[in-house]
Predict the structure.
Amino acid sequence: MKMTKKVLLTAAVMAAAAFGFMGCAADDDENDMIEKVNSNNYSINYTNNDKLTSRGYISTNLAHNGAVMEFKFTNSTANSAAGVLGFIWEFEDKDGVRQFYVLGVRQDNGIPSYYVSQFKNVTDINAENFGTKLEKNPATETLIAPATNKGGNATSKDFNKITDGSWDESGTVTVYADIAPVKGGYEIRFYKSELTAKNHSVADAVGEKISITSDFATATTEPSQKKLAIYANVYGNKTLTGSWKFVSTYKDAEVAEPDAE
């Protein structure tokens, strides 16, 4: 795969940008599922004894264009298909009404999969599917990848496999995602190592590239800097053990040209 991105600043500058996170509001993670380890690392080790999906969400005080994220699932054999580790970006809140993009990652028998959607008119971020099921004033979801959803609830929501075959290494499945701002929107690529993800080594990316058109950009401008966040879903009667790591983040000056199709 030919690399056509023109990253303007070094990865070292990106790494320096990945600090300054704040904690969450009291109602963001009602079941205290997510633990903040430090400014760049969060973890989860939560058993959901209810039949309904448990949800947790943590916003940050970081306003950047995108990020390189590590999603790690531990004890993956015992906790197969237990829930979702998610990343939220382009987060905007106007008087309690929110819109944002979501990348959700899960693993099933060592095989990682994902979905990408945009949500708007979100008034209850902890509601099922961010409130798209609410009877009054429901949120709206634009499916990006996969583009269709035969499911309709958290456990049957459609996911795309990143690749066929297990990624499991000694009971751990680790996925790196580069959510990179480009002129007009974003490009998302997946990697198996932190080094290739942090260096945006397109030739080493696995699976398909996801292209997104941003509401806050045009064909000749980059997306606006918005807040970043993380979330988790733990399915009913399941245990999800894992972590998130902000490997690096993007500033305005690091926006790249989109790849030629």
Notes: Residues 59 and 229 are 4 Å apart (CA to CA).
